[in-house]
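Model it.
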Amino acid sequence: MEPILRRPNRRIFLLTFVASGSALAGAGAAAQSAPVLRESDPQAAALGYRADATRVDAAKYPQHTAAQICSGCNFFQGQTAAAQAPCQLFAGKQVMAKGGCSGWAKKAA
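Modeled.
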């Protein structure tokens, strides 16, 4: 005998909807509370990250210019006016908007 398939009722639908909304809200809050990247972080050091782009090592990264700051980078995940935001190059960490590194790529207009 085959089991009878029951149609989901409204309560199950609402509980599922609320639970998925809470998960999405939690993900957004987690992105906002991500730690700020430290210059001493191994990946930051490997890419020459500095919280202040004016301190990027010009001898080691001669192609770096003063205009190459994190807020103007394609990997910067915040608004241009944000003081700090997540960066795709440094997963789970936020970078300073006025920072810079060797992974900079011009933000598409």
